[in-house]
TrEMBL record:
Protein name, entry field: sulfate adenylyltransferase
Pfam families xref list: GTP-eEF1A_C, GTP_EFTU
Keyword Plastid carried by entry: no
Keywords from the UniProt entry: ATP-binding, GTP-binding, Nucleotide-binding, Nucleotidyltransferase, Transferase
Biased composition (Polar residues): 1-11
Boundaries of every Tr-type G domain copy: 32-244
UniProt-annotated stretches for the region Disordered: 1-26
Length: 462
């Protein structure tokens, strides 16, 4: 009997050229570790110069950028480049020597990638500081060693606490102008430690620096033998941020319904998925999920990413979910895990930073944008205003002026599905929009839903 396979047999084993290709081993690349941080502090504390120094000393400035700085008229008498101009790009900023708008810069080291938000220090632009800090993992509060802790230092630290930024660095700048005095550094640290416990910020690092000269920014300084901590960049590279994301409750605000209807790919011919960025938790194929506001439980059939299908995904990945059942889901809906439950209410309790010259008043109507959902809303009550100087509440204000921090109650036209901001920064935040001009007038942080509220420790109530 011939050893040659008959036509009825699988000819792939007789003719190697017909055999399916052996797949190449797939190398799983770990997710890129990105640290988002902002700089804040009072005017002339050196925020823009610090960022310029970080970029310059970490070799993150392009040659054309450096040449433009060298050719500019902002070179000082000693031929020293004005590093602040790397972020202060507006003409008004360069003329006045202050930061007005938020400037974003990007750089990387072998250990981590960074996104920097250079935020204004002037009280007039506090709203811009809130914008830049809203997505930060870490906030750098700069303090002029000569002036010490002033009202803006307290204001920005309070805002960092209000925004639940988990990591804080107090960079005591211009130490060269106080002769690198350890006593002065300790005095400023003591001033901060008087009010930090009331703000509930647990991870705080104090670093003495000179942004202009580069001491303790990227390389250790010989002027501070009394300081044995890391440099600023060393701390930024090593601060632990993996646990900053909420991974305990799955949340997917639906951004759009994905219907490619690609006839050349059978898998995509009748495809119907729900796309968005995971705002919390982990989702797996086969997991039971709840679609809201439909209120229907279904099963995750497939999870699609840019690289194809995966078995699981987690916050903050962007994904497309395919469910086992046809459910009426559209933009503004949210898909959640069964536990822990998400809150639902039309009566909302929130902390807010007011960002518009026209003050916030009771009874005013706005559009409330929460994740991918926008609803009509009215301010039903203004409960408190925060006194930045004392961190005490002023009860019963009639209005909130621009840059004020306060606590309000809002009534919405239809239920909002949300978590408390302390639990989830993405599903616990919102903005208020003026209907006529579509200007963003306020940024808010939601208190825990009443039916799910638990006593919180280490937090102040404004």
């Amino acid at each position: 009997m011939s050893a040659t396979a008959s036509p009825s047999q699988d000819s792939r084993f007789v003719f190697p050229e017909l055999a399916p290709p052996i797949p190449e081993p797939r190398t799983v690349t770990p997710p890129v570790d990105i640290l988002r941080f902002n700089t804040c502090g009072s005017v002339d504390d050196g925020k823009s110069t610090l960022i310029g120094r970080l970029l310059f000393d970490s070799k993150s400035i392009m040659e054309d950028q450096l040449e433009a700085l060298e050719r500019s008229a902002d070179i000082t008498g000693g031929g020293q480049i004005n590093l602040a101009n790397l972020t202060d790009g507006l003409r008004a900023e360069r003329e006045q020597g202050i930061t007005i708008d938020v400037a974003y810069r990007y750089f990387a080291t072998p250990r981590r990638k960074f996104i920097i938000a250079d935020t204004p220090g002037h009280v007039q632009y506090t709203r811009n500081m809130v914008t830049g800090a809203s997505t930060a993992n870490l906030s750098i509060i700069l303090v002029d060693a000569r002036a010490g802790v002033i009202e803006q230092s307290r204001r920005h630290t309070a805002i960092a606490s209000l925004l639940r930024i988990p990591h804080l660095v107090v960079a005591v700048n211009k130490m060269d102008l106080v002769e690198w005095s350890e006593t002065r550094f300790n005095e400023i640290r003591a001033q901060f430690e008087e009010f930090l416990p009331r703000l509930g910020i647990k991870d705080v690092k104090f670093i003495p620096i000179s942004a202009l000269n580069g001491d303790n920014v990227v390389t250790p300084s010989t002027h501070t033998p009394w300081y044995d901590g890391p440099t600023l960049l060393g701390h930024l590279e090593t601060v632990h941020i993996a646990s900053d994301w909420n991974l305990s409750g799955f949340r997917l605000p639906v951004q759009w319904v994905n219907r490619p209807n690609t006839p050349t790919d059978p898998r995509l011919h009748d495809f119907r998925g729900f796309s968005g960025q995971i705002a919390g938790g982990i989702v797996r194929v086969g997991q039971k999920v709840l679609a809201l506001p439909a209120g229907i439980v279904s099963t995750v059939k497939e999870i699609w990413t840019y690289d194809g299908t995966v078995e699981e995904a987690f916050c903050p990945q962007s994904v497309t979910l395919v469910l086992a059942d046809d459910i009426d889901i559209s933009r503004g809906s949210i898909i959640t895990g069964l536990e822990p439950r998400i809150g639902a209410a039309t009566e909302l309790h929130a902390k807010i930073c007011w960002m518009h010259p026209r003050p916030l008043q009771r009874g005013r109507k706005y559009l409330l944008k929460h994740s991918t959902n926008t609803v009509q809303a009215v301010v039903s009550e203004i409960e408190h205003r925060l006194d930045i100087s004392t961190l005490e509440r002023a009860n019963g204000p009639t209005e909130l002026a621009m840059n004020d921090l306060g606590e309000i109650r809002i009534r919405t036209a239809k239920p909002i599905y949300y978590d408390g901001y302390a639990t989830n920064r993405l599903t616990g935040s919102f903005i208020l929009i003026e209907p006529g001009t579509h200007a963003t007038v306020g940024a808010g942080m939601l208190m825990p839903p009443a039916e799910l509220a638990r006593p919180e420790t280490g937090d102040y109530v404004i």
